[in-house]
Amino acid sequence: MNEARRVQSMLGVLFVVIAALAIGVGIWLRLTPAPPPEPPQPPREAKIYIPKVNPQGELTYESRPIAIQNPEAAYKEVFETLIRESGVFPQGVRLLRAAVQGDTLQLDFSEELVNNFEGGSDDEAALVNAISSTAGSLPNIQRVQILVQGKRVESLGGHIDLSQALPVTR
After folding, report:
1. Cα separation of 96 and 90, whole Å?
2. Which of 5, 69, 113, 157 could form an S-S bond across to 124 if both were Cys, CB 3.0 to 4.6 Å?
3. How far apart are CA 94 and CA 49, in angstroms?
């Protein structure tokens, strides 16, 4: 009987050691922060959306794929291409900065975006839709915030509220 008690004691000790080890590992896992998620890789290609009026007089958007030459400045490159090729931006507009915060792409334009904007509601809608559609072609972007000289603007021409980030169009 002594042998049986000794085996039971050893099994009991073994059980306590395993339980203590499991508790210790559980506590360690809870206290060890998870590594931050990898930032999304800049896109290698995107689509820009060019507003066009079809023969019926309706506004449509022509999608043009572009290859990104400089992945380090991918977002800026995409919207600089849109400014050059779309024909809807006011004269002299420059993109000062393009940055991603979470799922929002912030586009900071020069003051000419507001100061030189001369269009009506259709022109403003075409410009804003070109921006939101182009932003929607980029991975992980859900919203786009249009800024001028680093500040939020109410509107370009008084027709579309730009004070908050806009959902992208896919």
Report:
1. 15
2. 157
3. 18
Give the H or E element holding residue 152.
strand 151-152
Tens of pLDDT, residue by residue over 3-28, are 888 888 888 888 888 988 889 888 88
Q: Determine the 3-state secondary structure of 106 from DSSP.
A: strand
Tell whether pTM > 0.85.
Answer: no
User: What is the C-alpha R_g of the chain?
Assistant: 28
Cα gap 94→149, rounded to integer Å:
10
Q: Can you say whether the dihedral through the CA atoms of 16, 22, 27, 32 is positive or negative? A: positive
**75-105 pLDDT, tens per residue?**
999 999 999 999 999 999 999 999 999 999 9
Alpha-carbon gap, residue 125 to 120, rounded angstroms: 9
Q: Tell me how far apart the alpha carbons of residues 48 and 77 are, in angstroms, rounded to a whole number.
A: 11
The residue extents of the domains of the chain are 1-34, 45-167
Q: What's at 11, amino acid-wise?
A: L
Angle, CA of 101, 148 and 63, to the nearest 5°: 70
Query: CA-to-CA distance for 166 and 164, rounded, in angstroms?
Result: 6
C-alpha torsion 78→100→147→73, nearest 10 = -40
**AA identity, residue 69:** Q
